[in-house]
Amino acid sequence: MPSASSSPFISACGYTPKVSFDTFENPAASMFSFTLSAESVGYSRTPQTRVFLCAASPDESGRQALDWALDALVQDGDELVVFRGFDEDDLAKDHDAIRDEARELLQQVQAKSMEYDPDRKMSVRIEFIAGKVSDNIDRLIALYRPESVVVGTKGQRGMIQSWGAALGAPGMGSISRHCLSRSPVPIIVVRPERKVRKAQAKRKADPKRGKHFDE
Hints:
Helices cover 40% and strands 23% of the residues.
C-alpha cells in the first residue's frame, strides 16, 4: 500500500495542499511513484469537471506543453494531471531529490495557473513515476480517463511507436497517423513556440508561397 500524508511544503497562494502518495520505499509496489495534489481554494468537483493529462518533461518541449495546457485548455472546475517520468536507476540514487523536484513542479504549476487566470478554480495532481514513459502514460489514461492527453514534440515518436505496437500496427512508417486515430483519448501535440515561429518564417520566405497568405 502506498504511504499517504498531507504535505505542508507545497501550499501556494490560492491553493490548498491535499493528500500525497509515496511508494518509493515500498518494495512490493507495482510501480514506484510519488503523487502530490492541491486544489484552488473554493474548488469543487462537479459532473462537468473535465480531466486533462499532460506529459511534462523538464525540457523546452515539456514546459511548452504544460504552459499551453494551463493557458489555453484547462478551465474553471477542471482537473490537470501532470506526469513526469524518470528512470528507475535515478530512483536508486536519491529519493529525496525526486520528491523535491515534484514539489517544485507543483509550485510552478500553481504559480503559472494564478498568473494566467487568478480566478480559475482547479485541481492539480503531480505524478512522478519510474519506468517506461509510454507504459506509464497508458496506466494514467486508464486510471484518470482524461478528456485528452497533452504532449510536447520531444519523445513523441517513441510514445507513438509503443502505442502502435500495442495496437498491432504493421510496420513503423506512418505509425503516428495510425496510432493517433486509434488511441483511447485525443492526443494534443504542442510544438515549442520557437519552432513554430521558425517554421512560419521559412514558409513566408518560400518564393513559391501564395501571396494570399500575406493578407
